[in-house]
Amino acid sequence: MATRALGASARRMATVAATLIVAFSVAGCAASRKVSQITTGSIGRMAERPIDSMSASELQQAASSLGKRYAQNPKDKPVALRYASILQMSGHTDQSLAVMRKLAIDYSKDRDVLAAYGKALAAAGELEPALDAVRRAQTPEYPDWRLLSAEGAILDQLGQAAAARDLYQRALGMKPDEPSILSNMGMSYLLEGDLQTAEKYMSQAAAAPGADSRVRQNLALVIGLQGRFSDAEKIARQELSPDQAEANVAYLRSMLAQNNSWAQIASEDEKRN
After folding, report:
1. How does pLDDT run across 54-88, given as a tens digit for each residue?
2. Separation CA 113–CA 117 (nearest Å)
3. Cα angle value 61/64/69 (rounded, 5°)
4. Does the global pTM surpass 0.70?
C-alpha cells in the first residue's frame, strides 16, 4: 500500500484513535500509580486491577463502588481520580470530565490532578484547555516525560506534528524505548497518513518492555488500515481474556468499517495469503 494512502474517512478514524492515545498517555502519570493502590472499603481487590484490563462488567462494578465513595467525599483525591478514569474507560466522558473539573478546583495546584484533568479534557475533545492543564502540570526544572508525551499527543490533534514529535524525542531522551511514547509517535504518523512509518514506531512500542494491550491495539489498527486484517486480529487478541479479545476485535472492525468494509478487507487479505 502507498505510504500516504489514507482517505478522508480513514483520517477521521485516525483522529479518533489518536484522541484515545492522548487519554492513555496521561493515564501513565504518577496519579494513576497512586490510585491503583487503593485497597480499602467496598472496592477491595478491584482497585488493584489496571483499568485497561477490566471487562465491561468489571468496569461497571468498579464505577458503582467508586461512585458511592465519591458521593460521600468528592474531595477524596485518590478515589476521585480512579473514578474519573473508570468513567472515561466506560465511555462516560462527560461525567468523567465533571468529576475532574471539581477536583481541579479543589486541588488547583496539584500536579497529578492537573495532569488527569488534562487527560479528561482531551478525551472530551477540549484540546486547547487540555493543553493548558498539561502544561500547568509540568515543572520546567523537573520535567516529566509522561507530560511531554501527553502534550505532544494533544499538539498532534491540533495539527502541530513537528512540535509534537520534538516533544516525543525529548521524552524518549528521558525515557528511552518507552512504549507509550513510541506509540504516540506512531500515532502522529498515522494522523499524517504515513502508515509505514507509523507501523515502524508502533511495532517498536509493542515489542518494548512494559507494552500493554492498548499499545498493541494501536499497532493492530495501523496494520488493519494497510489491509492485513488477519495479522491485525491476531495482535488484537494477544494476552487478553476471551471477552476482552472479542471487544478489541469488535472495536477494530468498527474502526476499519469507517474506511472500508471489514468483509472487503478480510477478503483481500485472504487472497494475498
Report:
1. 777 888 888 899 999 999 999 999 999 999 999 98
2. 6
3. 130
4. yes
Q: Is 187 exposed, middle or buried (0-12, 13-18, 19+ CB in 10 A)?
A: buried
123-156 residue pLDDT tens: 888 999 999 999 999 988 889 999 999 999 999 9
Q: Taking Cα atoms as reference points, which of 93, 160, 159, 82 lies closest to residue 122?
A: 93
Long-range CB pairs of 249-252 (<8 Å, 24+ gap) are 251/217, 252/217, 252/220, 252/221, 252/224
Count Cβ neighbours within 10 Å for each residue of 58-91 and write b for 16 or more, e otherwise.
bbeebbebbbebbeeeeebbbbbbbbbbbbbbbe
Query: What distance in Å separates the CA atoms of residue 180 and residue 152, rounded to the nearest whole number?
Result: 12
pLDDT tier at 23, thresholds 50, 70, 90? very low
CA 247 – CA 256 distance, rounded (Å): 14
- 195 near 235, Cβ under 8 Å? no
CA gap 163, 114 in Å, rounded? 22
Which residue intervals of 158-212 are DSSP H helices? 161-174, 179-192, 195-207
